[in-house]
Amino acid sequence: MSLSQQQDIDFIVQAKHLYLDYAQSPTDSEHAAVVEDANFSIERGEKFVIIGSSGCGKTTLLKAIGGFIAPVQGEILLNDVPVTKPGPDRAFVFQDFEQLFAWRTVLDNIVYALRVTKRISKQEAISKARSYLELVQVAHAANKYPYQLSGGMKQRAALARALALEPELLLMDEPFGALDAITRNQLQLELNEIWKRTGVTIVLVTHSIQEAVFLGTHVMVMSSSPALIRKIVDTRHAHEFGSQEFDDLSIHLRSQLIHQETKSEELAELSAVE
Q1: 160 in Cβ contact with 133 (< 8 Å)
Q2: Cα angle for residues 41, 72, 232 (degrees, 5° grid)
Q3: Which DSSP category does 207 fall into?
Q4: Any idea what DSSP says for residue 248?
Q5: Mean pLDDT of the residues in the chain
Q6: N or C: which end of the chain has fewer CB within 10 A?
Q7: Phi and psi torsions of 162, nearest 5°
Q8: This protein's superkingdom (predicted)?
Q9: Strands of 123-261, DSSP E
Q10: pLDDT tens-digit profile of 51-86?
Q11: pLDDT in tens, 168-182
């Protein structure tokens, strides 16, 4: 892509020479590198998917975009402004089913979030909450408590709460990873439809290559920790399961991950010998 083409694109997120790390323990002054020299951009309105092996730094990177982890070096820009803290312009949906307040109904969970962040009247909050519960197809469960819901319904309710805040970025960390295959596939289909209707920018972490190809407009492959950006793949034209484009991109992404894992194992063996 030429410089002039890049300048014409509306990037909502830009990472520039980003380094992230964690302390080895709460009392340890030594830090372990997690992400090294990451450079990438996310277009407004796309579904940007991050894949990589377990522990490679995907969730850490997502938290940094959310403003929960400060870079050691470099920066993350949101609308050209450095990210320094969390904000209502970024909403999270996690893998954990227990994201909702157990003592509030599904409707009250969303109403509470709206009253706190949007400072709107209770009636406005109720109306908005009901509309988003309709969007994710759990309006019938509005007056139920989280313990009365299945895993899939809990994730739909958590998604409704996040979308009701009308964030600029929806950050999703393995949101369907703990669901059975049928429910997971159904929610993938629904997420695509919700994205088309809302236009929200989504950044999603997953271990599933098929999920990445099916959902993503771009897929970023991360190497093992400390993570480097191995490749960013355009997947906008490969969303049909079983199509040649879908199969070819799935194979390509798998080869990128396998190559990286093999390389990491070789380096570990060399280190052990030394």
Answers
A1: yes
A2: 25
A3: S
A4: H
A5: 85
A6: C
A7: -65, -45
A8: Bacteria
A9: 169-173, 201-205, 218-222, 229-234
A10: 988 777 889 999 999 999 999 999 999 999 999 999
A11: 999 999 988 878 888
**Across the chain, where does the E strand assignment appear?**
11-23, 31-43, 47-51, 73-78, 81-82, 90-93, 169-173, 201-205, 218-222, 229-234
Separation between Cα atoms, residue 268 and residue 149, nearest integer Å = 45
274: which residues sit within 8 A by CB, 6+ positions away? none
Residue 36 carries which side chain, given as an amino acid letter?
E
Amino acid at 109: N
**Amino acid identity for residue 239 in this structure:** H
Would you list the DSSP string of 84-131?
-S--TTEEEE-S-STTS-TTS-HHHHHHHHHHHHH---HHHHHHHHHH
Do residues 226 and 57 touch, judged by C-beta distance below 8 A? Answer: yes
Residues paired with residue 92 on neighbouring β-strands, in sequence order: 171
